Amino acid sequence: MLILECPYCGVKAEETELSPGYEAHLKRFGPGSSPEEFEAYMFARKNPKGVHFERWRHAYGCGKWFLAARCTATLEVFGTYPAQSGEPPADLQAKIKAKRPNWEGYK
Amino acid sequence: MSTRLQKGGRLIDRTRSASFTFNGKRLSGFAGDTLASSLLANDQMLVGRSFKYHRPRGIVASGAEEPNALVNMGEGGRFEPNQRVTTTELFDGLTATSQNHWPSLEFDVGVVNNYAARFLPAGFYYKTFMFPRFAWKHVFEPIVRQSAGLGKVPQGPEVDRYEYAYAFCDLFIVGGGIAGLQAALVAGQAGSRVILVEQTAHWGGRAPVDGDVIDGKPADQWVKDTVQALEKLPNVTLRLRTMASGVYDHGYVLADEKVADHTPGDGRPRHRLWRIRAGKIISAQGAIERPLSFAGNDIPGVMLASAVRDYVVNFAVSPGDRTVVVTNNDDAYRTAIALKEAGLEVPAIIDARTSLTGDLPAKAKAMGIRVEAGRAVVKVKGGKRVTGVSIGLQAGEGAVLEDIACDAVAMSGGWSPVVHLWSHCAGKLVWDEAQAHFRPDPKRPPTNQDGAAMVAIVGAANGNLSAAAALADVAAQLGGSAVTAVEVPEAAMLAVWIMPQGAGPALKMKMWLDYQNDVKVSDVQLAAREGYTSVEHTKRYTTLGMATDQGKLSNINGLAVLAGALNDQIPNVGTTTFRPPYTPVPFGALAGESRGEIFQPLRKSPMHGWHEAHNAYLEPVGLWRRAYCYPRAGENHEQAVNREILNARANVGMLDASTLGKIIVKGPDAGRFLDMLYTNVMSNLGIGKCRYGLMCNEQGFLSDDGVVIRLSEDSWLCHTTTGGADRIHGWMEDWLQCEWWDWKVYTANVTEEYAQIAVAGPNARKVLEKLGGMDVSKETLPFMTFADGTLGGLPVRVHRISFSGELSYEIATPASHGLALWEALIEAGQEFGVMPYGTEAMHIMRAEKGFIMIGDETDGTVIPQDLNLGWAISKKKADYLGKRGQERTHLASPDRWKLAGFETLTGGVIPDGSYIIADGHNANGQRNTQGRVTSTYYSPTLKKGIAMGLIKGGMDRLGDVVEFNTVAGSTVKAKVVDPVFYDKDGEKGNA
Amino acid sequence: MRNPVSPLGNATFDGFCKIREIGPLGMISLRAKPDVKELAKAVKTAVGTKLPAQRRIEVAGDKACGWMSPDEYLLILPYAETGAAMEAIAREMGAAHHLAAAVSDARAVFRVEGEKADQVLAKLCPVDFETLAEGELRRTRAAQVAAAFWKDGDGFTVVCFRSVAGYVMGLLTHSAEKGSELA
């Protein structure tokens, strides 16, 4: 059972205090978007064996959504950061790259 | 015979006897006994029958690894099957019965399977119960059910209590032997928060039995001193009778504490399930001795050498007067020596090795014990107990050189480290050729959230089998002051997987690998011949290593035999996956406190007690319990519902609507936010006004609905469905936190702050006016408006909204006044004919009005346009959640099924779940369909069946007669009609 | 006006700890960011405490202010004073972006008192009580429902939703049964 530290309240919350929210950093496509864009927004999800960015809500705590970088194979957690982030923080990306030299990067 | 010795027994207290029954026979033992030791003390060699062949079985082991001696324990509400006698502490009044036999343990009909064994080979079930198909139900299944299963299912409700407890530590140490104790001492003295658990009732593990000397002291003394030192450390917690069941991600451990198994009925919880989060886990679980595979190794009286030693030293119980020891290693000589020292006979030690050089064989010989090198047990003689062994050459094919009379056999095939906790989260193993076992690979540990090693493993569990090596291992891994044990040099063991080496098929069919599942050497070899090359497949095909013991004794022997049959190396064959629990955990412990009244949270409205007191029939709505109807004496539910509807339509009814979601949305951007959330416009709603709105998900499918009211310039209150309250609040917060975080909007879920009561019916206004306190007239408070004020002296917000179609007020009051307001309304309403109505009346009344219900008319694939709700979708808005989704071609298609009303030609009710059939059949041979019913009821108001449903063409089909299917295969003809069955012009609600 | 009633009528249980349902207490959920300059004074005026830091609760007599999230505070005060406090908040916050909602009736409040009070909660909550600081407000779950608590005097004050008051009382009762002490 995972532990993730909520970046808002500092609690090292266990999985039962959290609710999952799937892939992070999706770009919303609304009216006017092409079928391909909308399909990507709605349905195309990464399923990597390795580094993954995902959304979690501290549901039984402060109620805030946050983002986590996690290895889906080993369950190593590289870091958590606020949901109000367009992309993973640069220092977190550097940390991941150092731990997983073969990681192809965030984009 | 097995018996109690006159003296000795380090764990028993001869001054305190305990009486118990086994199969109704009254027996007695001592405090400190296990059920196993006390059965043996009473010469109860035969304790059960095997699962498949119903062979007589006795006790093999002395601990958690016991495969055979499973009994039904206790009676009534404390009955529990499959309890291992070796881990059951004896207490006065214990009752146990043996399993897997009929009619009796001594005479069992099922033993016929034993004679038919050649017809019940590996994969028997798969091969036999295939064809013909009909035979499964009528022939095979009844037979399998009759003979399947270990033990009996408890019949009565459980009478004991269980609970969870959460704990946190730096180090969680499993195993209270000398390695675990020393590890705890080192870490505890260094200041770490330590929890040390031991599955048995005693500290010290095997060292005291083996006669080890530690720090110059007898092991018993060292253990006592160390436990005392640990008890003085405030940062160390010690727990006996606590079995670490599994290691999970990020240092999570489950451990089952048997709090009161040995003191039933003393008021304490029976078990406590610990949910532990550890910085690091240290496994010091020791090692388990392996049986040897020789013919007849399952006959009662054949035991592990270490178990024989345990019974003699710990409990002063001798399994036999004459015990033959058979081994491939030096350690088993300790058993021979212990037996001899206890004054018992050891006719011979049969050692598979040809050259014996160790100190222990020398000592045994010096004591006058006959030692035979290079020899094997060809077969064990006896039926329900051992009568002797036939001896031959280990290198031979089974030619008998000599028969030796004996009544017990102590066997040792070497030791296997307990690597379960290391392996649960993918710690890897290496094959240790010298000791012929798998041990942890220190280079490939399981890892935690930081990518660091999560589990360490020390002592015998790490392959360091002697006390000296185990303690050196602790020092090497954890440091601390050096503790030394006297090293007794042991010569190398010899891997022996089949005894004798060249045994033929007749012997192999009697060599048991897995006692519990009756898997023999011949079964594994057959599986290999039939192509089962993977150890995981072989396990499932043969059942090797399944059931309650999960192959603690059998796995290594089994996979070694498989490797031999495949002509492969053991490490290439590998092990099956180790999974929690380490030993079985009762369901009660897993359920914890979640039983009875607190099985799950039941949400209750402030008026819940009133509903119960007035005979409400309650139905679950999510976790809420809501009044479905209020039956009166002599009424069934249907009659009660019909009465409640007719009364609300004729007089006035009251509904507890407190469960409806209520969310405040406030801020400079709140209007803009609600315009994104709802399909229609909410930003232009006037203060004091109400508006019905729809919410969709991004795919465009309808997800919730409700009335929105505007409280002030910058604040709105959104009503959601009962089930939608938390979900929609979460949905709002998701968008505000993760997408539009620069918008200035706050939300607050105030669902439970207010009790809400719908007062509906022609007399509704009169009831409110009787209570008095505010103007609720049509002029001051017209339809779709609200006002704050008081009624009967209670603070209220009164909404003129209607889900019933009647003149209706929905009144909110702070929850702590809810009951007072409800009772005041009931009292005021007496003269106007008020009656409470429940959720079913609410459902039917809204259906009579053609109002949709989330979850009835919607199922996650329905868009508002399908429900003719286009009027609630803004055409002007550039964007709202779901707009893009609804533009997809298949959602905009005219072929979609759309809402209409239905009436049967006979006035009957269309069955729930019916489809509207169309011509022809689809590719699967099923009738084509053109729609389905979504809500269908008997309307007491209209005195006929009414329904809503989705049909291809929707309202364009008005007047068509269509056919609904029924489960019985017939069809029901119905006419497509307007779904608004009652008060089409809405005059009543507007009144 | 009639007296408000607590969900369980101030039920009690005596086990190895004492469980008491208290209240109703006045409670206000106040949402605003801590950098809004009006906020500190609004809280001070309403309940007399300073603004709590992350995960803290500031107590002043029978009033308190707890940190619930980076933009949410829970104000606690006598039930009858809730209306006046709401007005004070509205006055002090003025046009500053905020949301204040009375939630007194949406909650049930319990006291768990006794030397081993932490053990009662340790059976229900995935929380390390050894590292729970004095004056720390912890939001978590108690078995299957949301709960918040803090150490106060000889025990803990536990807050949950009103609708599950009976369930939480059941949990606390089960966990405080005599003979089930953890140590």
Automatic annotation (TrEMBL), chain A:
InterPro entries: SoxD, SoxD_sf
GO molecular function: sarcosine oxidase activity
GO BP, sorted A to Z: tetrahydrofolate metabolic process
UniProt xrefs under Gene3D superfamilies: Folate-binding superfamily
Pfam families, per database record: SoxD
UniProt-recorded name of the protein: Sarcosine oxidase subunit delta
Organism: Tabrizicola oligotrophica
Automatic annotation (TrEMBL), chain B:
Annotated ranges, domain GCVT N-terminal: 607-877
Residue span, SoxA A3 domain: 509-592
Domain FAD/NAD(P)-binding per the UniProt entry, residue ranges: 170-421
Molecular function terms, GO-annotated: sarcosine oxidase activity
One GO BP annotation of this record: tetrahydrofolate metabolic process
Name of one Pfam family that matches: SO_alpha_A3
Sequence ranges assigned to domain Aminomethyltransferase C-terminal in this UniProt record: 898-983
InterPro entries, per the entry: 2Fe-2S-bd_N, FAD/NAD-bd_sf, FAD/NAD-binding_dom, GcvT/YgfZ/DmdA, GcvT/YgfZ_C, GcvT_C, GCVT_N, Sarcosine_oxidase_asu
Keyword Oxidoreductase assigned: yes
Keywords: Oxidoreductase
Assigned protein family: Belongs to the GcvT family.
NCBIfam families cross-referenced by the UniProt entry: soxA
Protein name: Sarcosine oxidase subunit alpha family protein
UniProtKB/TrEMBL annotation, chain C:
InterPro entries the UniProt entry points to: SoxG (IPR007375), TrmE/GcvT-like (IPR027266)
Coiled-coil annotated spans: none
Domain of life: Bacteria
Pfam families named among the record's database cross-references: SoxG
Transmembrane segments: none
SUPFAM superfamilies, sorted: Folate-binding domain
Protein's name in the database: Sarcosine oxidase subunit gamma
Protein source organism: Tabrizicola oligotrophica
